[in-house]
UniProtKB/TrEMBL annotation:
Record's bilayer topology term: Multi-pass membrane protein
Organism the protein comes from: Paraburkholderia bryophila
Pfam families membership: Sulfatase
This protein's name: General stress protein CsbA
GO CC entries: plasma membrane
CDD domains to which the protein is assigned, alphabetical: LTA_synthase
Main localisation: membrane
């Protein structure tokens, strides 16, 4: 029996390399011995654990192989849409597949879904068809599982990784990299590294010396789409253009996300910490925020500010409700407050978010406000949205070809984001209190097929910092996401012409 178990393990370990052939980006079989050892030891752990639980030899070998194939298929779906393979932190978002299926399931192709269904059916049939062992070598299997796990940990620690999933996968193979990220990333050191980076970040000390109200808006999938082609209507972002001309500072924003993974850009802006300092936490930083830490919100709180988040979606998405408390957010207004708000497509409209921001500013209070708002209207999947014949003419001159359908849906929402800006800036300009508005896009939209057809693939979003007080020339300065918060802080103190009175201010705790 021992020989049979060993042969099945060897077969499973060898056959588990076959799914690597479908994993994108492709990896050469010319890899380091460490990556091969990590792949084989991980398969051995899975096989031994399944055999301990089920007692079914061939079934355990088949499931070990099928698991690699499943991960590779899901990874390919993610890579096709977001240019990034499946990484270990995506496992922690698995429950969101069921609670928010519209955000995930449409990105799985019919072939991928069919393969998953067939694979599950085969697993069930295999489990039922195979007779379990009458006597399981429990001790030997437990020893194999523990020894293999120890080898996997050693190999994962020794594997030379860049933490760029695409580059690492090309060099070491999909499954070895996935396992290495998982074993290395789940160590307590990951959370410690994040906390240490925040403790040394730009908001760990200091406090505001003045007290304007401050609004920070993260606009879903916003970027200046006119860069894609001259055929896109220039007037689609007229309010955005006006805001940039009147701004203190504006420019392109380099963000650590493409097509999705909003929380990476969000975390960089709120903490001022570069993803290189986060180690494995860079992929899903909120999962590793486990105690009170420094952030842009905590910096404002030291100046006596009330800190507020407005987001027209569920507070528990990405674990924001838990993480934001550690980031020193006093209050979170989420989808429950937008039950009767108008929609634009499947999500709450940007204009409704603007109305909520203005309402929050108008609440009676005796302290300044820092309001962080994330919009939702332009969230995909855009290919599920309805586009009428001829609708594209209002936004571009590319015609009604079906390949521009998703672009039309995107530009429709982009125009709504621009209208939101016009409404909000008009309201802020009329306010008696000094107010600062910082606006930026979290990432470009997931429209890879549109970008290919237009021959241009964007990677950066845009930002501006605007004030309703003081005089300053608009400075063009391109930034990285982690530099935006410090730039916002620097913009609070204007150079005011002699004799020009300040607008109404709240007192600060520093005075």
């Amino acid at each position: 029996m021992q020989a049979t178990l060993a042969l099945n393990l060897i077969a499973a370990a060898g056959l588990a390399f076959l799914p690597e052939a479908i994993a994108l980006p492709r990896a050469s079989l010319r890899r380091s011995p460490v990556s091969f050892a990590l792949h084989l030891s991980a398969i051995a752990v899975i096989y031994a654990c399944l055999l301990l639980i089920t007692g079914r030899v061939r079934f355990s070998a088949f499931v070990a192989i099928a698991l690699v194939a499943l991960l590779a298929g899901v990874s390919n779906a993610k890579y096709a849409s977001l240019q990034e393979p499946f990484v270990f932190t995506d496992l922690s978002l698995f429950s969101q597949l069921f609670s928010h299926p519209r955000l995930y399931l449409p990105f799985l192709s019919v072939a991928t879904v069919a393969a998953i269904v067939i694979g599950v059916a085969m697993v069930i049939v295999g489990f039922v068809a195979e007779t379990p062992l009458a006597q399981r070598p429990v001790g030997a299997l437990a020893l194999l599982a523990c020894a293999s796990l120890a080898v996997a940990y050693l190999c994962a620690a020794r594997l030379p990784l860049t933490l760029n999933p695409v580059d690492d996968q090309k060099r070491h193979g999909f499954f070895a990299v996935f396992v290495a990220y998982l074993l290395n990333g789940m160590k307590p050191a990951t959370a410690r590294q994040l906390q240490d980076a925040l403790a040394a970040g730009p908001f760990a000390s200091g406090a505001p010396q003045s007290a304007p109200d401050v609004i920070l808006i993260q606009s879903e999938s916003f970027f200046d789409a006119r860069r894609l082609a001259p055929s896109i209507d220039r007037a689609i972002l007229k309010h955005f253009d006006n805001a940039r001309r009147e701004s203190v500072q504006h420019g392109d924003l380099t963000v650590p996300a493409w097509g999705a993974n909003t929380m990476r850009t969000e975390f960089a802006v709120l903490t001022g910490v570069d993803q290189q300092q986060l180690g494995y936490a860079r992929f899903y930083p909120y999962a590793f925020v486990r105690r009170a830490c420094a952030s842009l919100a905590s910096w404002f709180k030291r100046g006596g500010y009330k800190t507020l988040v407005i987001h027209p979606y569920y507070a528990d998405f990405f674990g924001r409700d838990r993480a934001f408390k550690h980031l020193q957010i006093d209050r979170f207004i989420d989808i429950k407050a937008f039950a009767d708000a108008p929609r634009a497509g499947p999500y709450v409209s940007d204009m409704a978010v603007a109305a909520s921001i203005v309402a929050a500013l108008d609440e009676p209070r005796n302290q300044p406000a820092f309001i962080f708002s994330m919009t939702m209207e332009n969230h995909g999947p855009l290919h599920l949205e309805r586009v009428e014949a001829g609708e594209g003419a209002a936004f571009h001159a590319l015609g009604d070809d079906p390949r521009w359908r998703d672009l039309t849906a995107y530009l429709r929402h982009l125009a709504n984001a621009d209208a939101m800006l016009g409404h909000l800036i008009a309201a802020l300009r009329a306010r008696p209190r000094e107010t600062v508005l910082c606006f930026y896009g979290d990432h470009v939209p997931a429209l890879p097929h549109v970008f290919v057809d237009l021959g241009y693939e964007p990677s950066r979003s845009d930002y501006f910092i605007w004030r309703n007080y003081g005089d300053a020339p608009a400075i063009r300065k391109d930034l990285c996401a982690e530099q935006l918060g410090p730039a916002l802080v620097r913009s609070l103190e204007p150079v005011r012409p002699r004799g020009k009175p300040a607008r109404t201010l709240y007192p600060t705790t520093e005075q």
